[in-house]
Prior knowledge:
Helix 4 (105-121) packs parallel to helix 5 (140-156) and helix 12 packs parallel to helix 14 (378-391). The chain has helices at residues 2-19, 24-32, 38-45, 105-121, 140-156, 176-180, 198-205, 211-215, 217-224, 234-245, 286-293, 338-353, 371-376, 378-391, 406-411, 435-442, 444-449, 453-467, 472-476, 489-499; strands at residues 52-54, 77-84, 87-94, 125-129, 162-166, 169-171, 183-187, 192-194, 229-231, 300-302, 310-317, 320-327, 358-364, 396-405, 421-424, 429-431, 482-483. It is an alpha/beta fold. A hairpin with a 2-residue loop joins strand 2 and strand 3 (87-94).
Amino acid sequence: MSKIKDKINLLNQKARASNLGGGQDRIDAQHKQGKMTARERLHFLFDNGFFDEIFKFVQHSNNAFGMDGKLLPGDGVVTALGAVNGRLVHVSSQDFTVMGGSVGRMHAWKICEMMDMSLKNGTPYIAINDSGGARIQEGIHSLRGYGRIFYYNTMLSGVVPQISIIAGPCAGGAAYSPALMDFIIMVEKTGQLFIAGPKVIKEATGENITAEELGGAMAQATFSGNVHFIARDDAEAIEITQKLLSYLPSNNLEEPPYLGSEQLDIVVDEALNFTVPDDPRDPYDMMDILVRVFDPDSIMEVQNHFAKNMLVCFARLNGRVVGVVANQPMVKSGAIDIDASDKASRFIRFCNAFNIPLITFVDVPGFMPGVEQEFGGIIRHGAKMLFSFSASTVPKITIIVRKAYGGAYLAMSAKSLGADRVAAWPSAEVAVMGAEGAVSILFRRELQEAEDPKQKRRELVKEYQENFATPYPAAAEGLVDSVIEPKMTRHYLSIALESLKNKRAPRPQKKHGLIPL
């Protein structure tokens, strides 16, 4: 009996040592930076703080560069599974207290094993990044480890949701794993995300920039669009993760979580009739419409710091999860530019991969003109939206609120791109271009020959608006299913979504489409 007690005591001793990671001093240093430890993050993430740790006693196997006999508990990463919102998820949480959370061969192996379990079991995968990067002492073994992580990120893509939390450094090659995942949540001040740091940039280009200005949360959310959500601290990053998971199915074979009661709430909201200004040049906040249409407090905006002329968000309609894509007239008049195209396309493709219906609200004057946009590839980037909506097989419902001009109208899930239901408000203007531009082209000679060109222009613009800048020519051709009062929008969407919940849309057999990247 004494021998088994001794063995149990040894087990408990090793477990305690593993739980301490790099030791109390390094844990204290982690806390001084305002950061949780790897295990504290897991306790906060999982329901009731309970998780099953796997590969707890893994050690590195490198003997070079002073590593012989050096103990690295868990090789610097904690891998675990547990429940979030009652559903199983697999997680890897890098431990910065153990050799800076650097990635060696066994460290990477543990992460890949968790990703493989996620793939086989159809569970979301979460990576909490807090690492100094590749472990130099392990050289090519570290690089191979990163390569395998990237490979598994790609294998999981479109099969299970992947969420990355940047809670500390994530530089160089390490940044590519989060980039291959579906969503990045980054902690202000403590999180860093870049390929080359300020010192490298200074040496290479002579540019001076701080780490926060280059790879901080706001920089990566605003300028590059790499970051989808910004958190004040680790706790908020985990809360965002929990909320995000509540909108997502566990895998691509399941439906998103349903919170409804099978009863349709088709309330009529009179205020919607007065949301859009009479003057088509006046801006308004599209979010004011969205919050009135969808279930109360159900909207979760994605990438709200990037390409603000395009809104993308998750929401619920009668408890059903939907993905919303909408122009924002408050920014750039809602025109679609390169960044807006990329933002919308990525979101559309995610929703389609995970069986989330798409609802689009249109008020778009066109694609953004300009030499910078043309040379930057607005044609190629805009084509991503055309491709993404056309390739999507989930239910697609479109509401034309005001302007729907030219190719940008098509890119916002037009009927001809496969939208299942399209409704327009009476304020909708479905046309190749706005009345002013159309009159200049169509009536050039009349304007030149008129005694009072300005008065003639006003008359022609008014006539064009009355006859063509309305939803009725499009409705006459079946490009608009219904013209509805704005107050009936939730009513219309509720019935349309319910009627499409069993939609099936077979596609030709192929490996994959070739989206214009």
